[in-house]
Amino acid sequence: MAKLTIEMPHVGESVTEAIIGKWLVSPGDIVRRYDPLVEVITDKVNMEVPSPQEGTITDLLVAEDETVQMGAPIAEMEIEGASPEPETAESNEPDNVTSQSQAAQPAGRVGSMIIGANVGPTGGEFTDTSLQTDAPTPSETVTPSAPRRSRRRDRDDRGARISPVVRRLAEKHGLDVNTIPGSGAGGRVTRRDVETYLESQATAGSDELIEPTAIRRIIAENMARSFREIPHAWGAIEVDVTDLVNYRRTNIDRIQNATEHRLTYLPIILRQIAAALRKHRNLNSSWVDGKIQLKGAINIGVAVAAEQGLIVPVLRNADTLTLEETVSEMARIVDGARSGKLRIDDVQGGTFTLNNTGALGSVLGGAIINYPQAAILTTESIVKRPVVIDTPNGDAITVRSMMNMCLSFDHRIVDGAEAMAFLTDIKSRLESISLEDNS
Question: Model pTM?
């Protein structure tokens, strides 16, 4: 028998860590190759890590709700077969267990994934759900079987492993972990179990501490990073979208017949934004190591509020799409999210973000930039109200459909004049849209 160490798989260049969501196996379980072992959560996707080999799970090295780096060991298993000659490595552990790492091999298996969250503001018309995509295979480390060192502080009286985080939290509040019911694999006490126990002991009427979900913690970290590293500036402009409303009303049947999808305002506005980004390239960029990286492609993400968090599906090369293609592609993303068939690249590679807070009733707001992009634009509610317009006979008051557009931008890259020029460009395009424009 040989011992194999299962590592957290790498799922993309920008993803450096993940949260252990739920273990699907316990020590002593016999698993087949590709059997799901654990659900993990990242800022891009949720996924099930498959078993790289057939064998017996001997230990789970990380507790549920803990954050681990990509490539870090998360479990151990015994497999049939001889072990290769190990490389001897110095260790700070008392028993100096030796190991040899092998390169990760692709599993070639379709694993279950759920789109995660990587943006701050809310809004939009999409809902995230499970999807199917190729799951990377964990790196494997094969070592000869060796006796385990004593782990008295790492296990409770029931034999279940206790993470250092859980033990420190329990000791801080003077709790005996053996008295706390465990909901983790094999009866393990998780951090959430300790916090739930503390809440149950709280007196009525006192302040309540709520444990955020893993997705909410990731969102919080991303928002804090964006606001900490990007000097945000903000501007807004009022747009008369009466012609836009008429354009949609005129073309709704044509688009329905051509695409079999309902025409909303968002695809129409998105196309005008994409056209403006071709002219104002600094808005389609990132600040990288003291330089401005102008993006070659215009990939517009749409911020979406979902029950379990936020997601930004990306419309690639948005400036090259016709209205029909834009409507169809946005519908594909929506249908894919709801049926669990989105691809991983549907949530990666965004260069600019559109945030449709108007769908939530907002009329004015400042969004947090989707790091590391340069800007995010919000479209607010369309409201009918009286406005003053110029006529051949002088000023007149009439009822028009009005909408605010708000832009948050990276002030290292974009100044106020350029930001307002960008907004004015979009405003001009929306206010002059032609009813006969069938592109």
Answer: 0.62
Largest CA distance in the chain: 95
What pLDDT, in 10s, does the model give residues 385-395?
Answer: 999 999 999 99
| Alpha carbon 422 to its chain's center | 27
* Per-residue pLDDT reduced to its tens digit, 48-70: 889 999 999 999 999 888 888 88
Domains with residue ranges and CATH for the chain: 2-198 (2.40.50.100), 230-431 (3.30.559.10)
Distance (Å, rounded) from C-alpha 270 to C-alpha 199? 46
DSSP state of 28: T
Contact by Cβ (8 Å): 371, 362:
no
| H helical segments located in 340-415 | none
- What residues are labeled active site? 411, 415
Amino acid residing at 385: R
> Does the pLDDT at position 148 exceed 60?
no
Distance CA 272, CA 426 (A): 6
Give the confidence band of 9 by pLDDT, cuts at 50, 70, 90: confident
